[in-house]
Design goal:
It is a single chain. This protein is α/β, with parallel strands linked by helices and 165 residues long. It has helices at residues 3-12, 22-25, 46-53, 65-78, 113-119, 152-156, and strands at 36-40, 57-62, 82-86, 99-105, 120-129.
Length: 165
């Protein structure tokens, strides 16, 4: 089964309301008053919705067209400034100096981290939340390669100033 098919099936059968990343919810005060934000690998778009509710213009990308269609419907109904698109972020990462805020939750592709750093505008923010190899629950990927090692997130983003970890 392809990655796209796997995620489409997961979102097709999803139940309950999606939750925004805890790191984003707890640090809304750091967001700029206005600007462009990216919810990368957005899934059903909980981060995108929260960012748009804060007044940001949001792009939300995911490989799963089922998730993107769901988010497009929500954005339309709630009149939120969200442009949800089907986009394989591994094949087509964001362009340089494009976003004031980038949010990534529960997605890990180490190879696109340099592109994320370049995609930030000056003084931009990255909110990143994913699973670690030190498990605190049974949730998340089983394979270690899809989980962060100790201190790895700090190393991957070592060129940025850490505001919250």
């Amino acid at each position: 089964m392809s990655s796209k098919a796997k995620w489409n099936e997961r979102y097709r059968t999803a139940t309950g309301e999606p939750n925004a990343a805890q790191v984003l919810k707890e640090n809304l005060h750091l967001l700029p008053v206005k600007g462009r934000a990216l919810d990368m690998a957005c899934g059903l778009g909980a981060n995108a919705i929260l960012l748009a509710q804060q007044g940001l213009e949001v792009e939300a990308w995911d490989i799963a067209d089922v998730a993107v269609a769901t988010l497009q419907d929500i954005a339309l109904k709630q009149q939120l400034a969200i442009q949800a698109r089907v986009r394989d972020v591994e094949a087509q990462p964001p362009e340089a100096a494009t976003f004031d805020v980038i949010v990534v939750s529960y997605f890990l592709d180490r190879d696109i981290i340099p592109a994320l750093l370049l995609a930030l505008k000056p003084d931009g923010l990255i909110y990143y939340q994913t699973f670690t190899r030190q498990r605190v629950s049974e949730r998340g990927p089983q394979q270690a390669k899809y989980r962060l090692a100790d201190q790895e997130l700090l190393q991957l983003f070592s060129g940025l100033q850490v505001l919250f970890y």
